[in-house]
Amino acid sequence: MLKTLTxxxxxxxxxxxxxxxxxxxxxxxxxxxDGYPTVEAVKYMGELLKERTDGxxxxxxxxxxxxxxxxxxxxxxKFGVIDLNRVSxxxxxNIVEETKVVSLPYIFKSVDHMxxxxxxxxxxxxxxxxxxxxxxxxxxxxxxxxxxxxxVKPIKSIDxxxxxxxxxxxxDIFVDMMSALGANATPLAYGxxxxxIQTGVIDGAENNWPSFESSGHFEVAPNYTLxxxxxxxxxxxxxxxxxxKLSPEDQALVKQAxxxxxxxxxxxxxxREKVSEEKxxxxxxxxxxxxxxxxxxxxxxSVYEKHVTSDKLKDLVKRIRATD
Length: 324
Ligand code: GTR
What we know:
The protein is α/β, with parallel strands linked by helices. The chain contains 14 helices and eleven strands.
């Protein structure tokens, strides 16, 4: 009995010692639930960092919007209350001008094209834009392709969207995108979408397979049209306030661990997309795959005209289009 107790005591002391060995614990925010690819990728980054700093720097991921919805959490990150934040680039559009280009509808030919852009110099140039606004852009994650879903009827052509109330992420680009499609945009926090569809405040929203599934939106909006109007990458950012507290060596380690988590994220993402699609289809959601995207693309000219006005953005769009 005494021996067992002593062993247990030694074990718990050892555990406390390991836990308290973290000199720095970086608090990280994510809107998604535990197990979602973005959440798991940031945890993985934390493991790498802990290993590479002999346990000195740790990451604690707060999933399921525990630290707030994306827009608020971005503010908290700017103030240094939150150290790391994994968000879509969408809610950054009104803060970091450069992020607008990757939020433009149909800017990317495919997810592979998006990877080639964000993994190269264009991606780095966009990340640099975060610094003057109080953030360090660390790395990109995947957000698949976003498509429309709603509770009313299957959208088979652009005409079906007319007059519908569709939730978008909080960015002017997406509001204008919906107007260009003849619909009414309702910018809302992600966490409010389910009940807003359920109560009929909005008709639908738009997202990728994993979000459509994990949020449960498919339960209340069972018509999903694969028009893939947006391929918006996601970002992992750090508060500049938290970053400035680190030594240059530690900054480099944080950056590297973040970069090294991207391939892991993409692996997890590919697997989750399949699982989510299966789950949604099994639930009987009406998935419309045959859709002529051309009219959707043509309608976007006004969005580009309104938002791609500065030389900086014009140049970025040109470079993205010149990327094979
Ligand atoms: C998801 C994305 C989240 C959030 C959400 C939304 O695809 O991963 O970061 O932006 O969409 O629509 O608000």
